[in-house]
Amino acid sequence: MVNAETKVGPKGQIVIPKLLRDEFGILPGDEVMIKETSEGMLIERVVENPIKILRLIAKSGKRAKKINFHKYEEQIEERWKRAKK
Q: pTM higher than 0.90 for the full model?
């Protein structure tokens, strides 16, 4: 079990020490949940909600490009020719 001390900044922010971020896979931009327990506070990494991710993708308005199958077939044929040489 790792114990680490950190200071609370003027805006109430804390820095999770690198050792703990690495251990628990917390990356910049990740969300964490702070829960009150009978023993104090618990900080947990929030697991991504797939529905939330899909909603963000849908709201972005980006559409997949249509595939030009004729061009795709030409590229495959060219690759086969190069591979046979």
A: no
State phi, psi for 11 to the nearest 5 degrees.
-100, 10
Stronger pLDDT, 39 or 55, i.e. the higher one = 39
pLDDT of residue 83: 80
Residues 6+ apart with CB under 8 A from 15: 6, 9
CA dihedral 23, 25, 31, 33 (to 10 degrees): -40
> What secondary structure does DSSP assign to 23-71, as a single string?
HHT--TT--EEEEEETTEEEEEEPPPPHHHHHHHHHHHT--PPPP-HHH
